[in-house]
Amino acid sequence: NTSAGQPQLPVVLDYTDQQLGPYQLKECLGSGGMGTVYKAQDRKSGQIVAIKLLYPQLVALEHIVARFQREANTLKNLAHPRIVNYIDEGQLDGHYYLVMEYIAGENLEQYLKANTPSVSQALEISQQICEALQAAHEQGIVHRDLKPANIILSQTGVRVLDFGIAHVSTDDRTLTHSDALLGTINYMSPEQRSRGQQVDHRADLYSLGVVLYRMLTGKLPLGAFAPASRYNTQIDHRFDKLLAKALQSEPESRHQSAAELQLGLERLQLPRFGKYAWVAGGVALLLLLGFLFFQQLPSKKTAPEPKAPSGKIYSQAQAIPTKQEVLTQANIAAKNVQEETLPADEEPENEPVPDKVAPQQLTPRSRNSVAPNQQAVNKKQANIAKSKKTFRRKGKNVQINKNVKKKTGI
């Protein structure tokens, strides 16, 4: 029955352990504005599923049935890892039902009642919700009832469900005014609460802003709400700035897509820097690049000194004498020896020694005095000639015999 054109609150019936076509209803998971969700099992395949059963009292209302069928069609077009998957739908004995995949885990509403998520957890959950909303919005689908009870926390991450009042936007991507007043009041955008405004995908972004504010503070941003950093000392003004934009009354002042909001959430995960930290970081980077550049320049290396040949090592001051130098030294030594053999009182210094003296011109006394000298000179010259010949034969430096004087008997 209806009153003033609106349905009365339905009487929730429990169909646990009942059969619904090929499915056996096992457990009641929860109830909503349109029906009850059961955990069930396919009797043929044994697959565990979730079945949403429309309240029997609402079957007579055509617009409610149309909305229920709309959810089934919406899930058919949404194949995304962050959105619950559609399996089947049907009608049996006046009961409309929708079969979805079963997600083990608790919803965010249950989690928030018993726990306070950390800042990093709140950011991670919100980013995954953005992924689901972006996929739905790209298909022209607006959820319109995003709240913690419709967000499942599973082992594989966040899953968004309950598109029961979702609407496929028209070409101008707006909803009709008659459908605007749908959703949970505390999470509804201002345009959803007002009958005179149009509603589009940006209404879901407002609802996500409310969910994030509650995860960070444990409170709802009602009226002139305080910045989130007042209730949570682990966050700074950057969070306040993002939430203030997401919760703007005018849709044009909010984030214009779920992808844009997700990017802002990712930036909040970066560490906070001081006022001049970026400048210092840039200078450090330039210094590092300069150091690496100069490291790549070729260095001037001195050529290695040549290795000395094996054998006797000669320094630059002790150069190996040449054959001509040895001959010259031998001649000089021979000349010195010759000068030493001549008596100073009988032969002048510059007077040449006669090669041969005529015997008839000498007296017996002079013959006896000259002959021994001449004989010694001739013998010395023969020794020098023999020394030169020996050098030419052996090809090496030969020292002049220092005992020539003794050998010649002079």
Task: Label the overall shape.
Answer: elongated
Order of helices and strands: EEEEEEHEEEHHEEEEHHHHHHHH
Could you list the spans in which at least 5 consecutive residues all have pLDDT below 50? 1-9, 168-181, 344-349, 366-370, 395-400, 402-406
Mean pLDDT, all residues = 76
- Output the strand order for the largest sheet: 3-4-5-6-8-7
Number of helices: 11
Strand content: 5-15%
Q: Could you give the distance between the termini?
A: 163 Å
| Range of helix content | 25-40%
Radius of gyration: 58 Å
Main sheet overview: 6 strands, antiparallel
Structure description:
Residues about 1-10, about 170-180, about 345-350, about 365-370, about 395-400 and about 400-405 have low confidence and may be disordered. The longest helix is centred in the last third of the chain and has 31 residues, at about 365-395. The protein has a six-stranded antiparallel beta sheet, with helices on one face. Strand 5 and strand 6 form a beta hairpin. With about 400 residues, it is of the alpha+beta class. The protein contains eleven helices and 13 strands. The protein has helices at about 60-75, 110-115, 120-140, 190-195, 200-215, 235-245, 260-270, 275-295, 325-340, 365-395, 405-410; strands at about 1-5, 5, 20, 25-30, 35-40, 50-55, 85-90, 95-100, 105, 140, 150-155, 155-160, 165-170.
